[in-house]
């Protein structure tokens, strides 16, 4: 906990704060704590300013800064300056920064230079014994040296831990991608082997049935033609979806190839026409401005219309009256599908609890940041969707 705080304090970005604090402490000592006969003169203040200036360059040139401050300490002793304690403190800080930032030959050089000056300074005082001189040198040199080495080692361990954590996260994401690929491959295989196979079989048999009809049964031929076209379209969509699942990198969005946004109004109109062929009475209002939507929202609108009309035919009956509105309303796409419930339902189950259609619509709308409300209204059912409109390059991709 202490090492990161110290490292942050001695970061290059904190140089003004650090140097300002050293200058304030040094000046404060000389002004407040020093005895009157120890007040620094012009030479002492010049040396102090030089040491502070050298401290400014310590993050970029730690060895040069340490040697410069050691030299200033030696000059101060030679000139008998009155501010030796601040100069010693600044020299010790410089050695600490050097130990924290550098290893190899630079560190012994800086430590040896400051040790030599400290010993020489101590020996100039006749009242001090060799033991006192050695003890003073150990305080000036040994303490900052050991603390700097410790902080450097702690920072190195912290960086190694961060690197290991980043590598583990990368491995975890890689494994998750592998799992997702396996899931997509399994889904693609099931879609191809089961769903697509059966749909292809249905399309083939409907095609055979069309050829077996004689020319007198035109209504039945029209119905079979519609079933054949719908099945062929569904089979093409399934094949493209299988291709997306197997190779998602080859497509911008899941299903982005299934509808061109510029053709969205035409695609919605085609869905409405198929619903009318089933027997639904659909009053549709489709805004041509929908052609300006991005691919993801265009696909969402198309799928919502398909699922909504399918639910009406399933739960309200194929003879129900339906009102459909799809338009741009300010910064949102507004989609409403309502029915009168007067048809003969092919499935008496509740649309809210039967199957996964409404659940899938809610998930799709929520993914795009929109809202969906669905429920009974009068004798029928109403679906209301609001989707926000954003720039294409800011839209999320479908899962």
Quick recap:
It contains eleven helices and five strands. With 399 residues, it is α+β, with helices and mostly antiparallel strands. The chain has two domains: 2-165, no CATH class; 254-399, Histidine kinase-like ATPase, C-terminal domain (Heat Shock Protein 90, 2-Layer Sandwich).
Structural commentary:
The protein is of the alpha+beta class and 399 residues long. The chain has 2 domains: 2-165, no CATH class; 254-399, Heat Shock Protein 90, CATH 3.30.565.10. Helices cover 64% and strands 10% of the residues. It contains 11 helices and 5 strands; from the N terminus they run αααααααααβαββαββ. The protein has helices spanning 2-9, 15-33, 42-56, 62-78, 84-101, 106-123, 130-212, 218-246, 264-278, 295-315, 357-367; strands spanning 281-286, 321-329, 332-339, 371-377, 380-388. It has a 5-stranded mixed sheet. α10 links the parallel β1 (281-286) and β2. α1 (2-9) crosses α7 and α4 runs parallel beside α6 (106-123). The two termini are 41 Å apart. The model is unreliable at 252-257, 347-354 and 391-399 (pLDDT under 50).
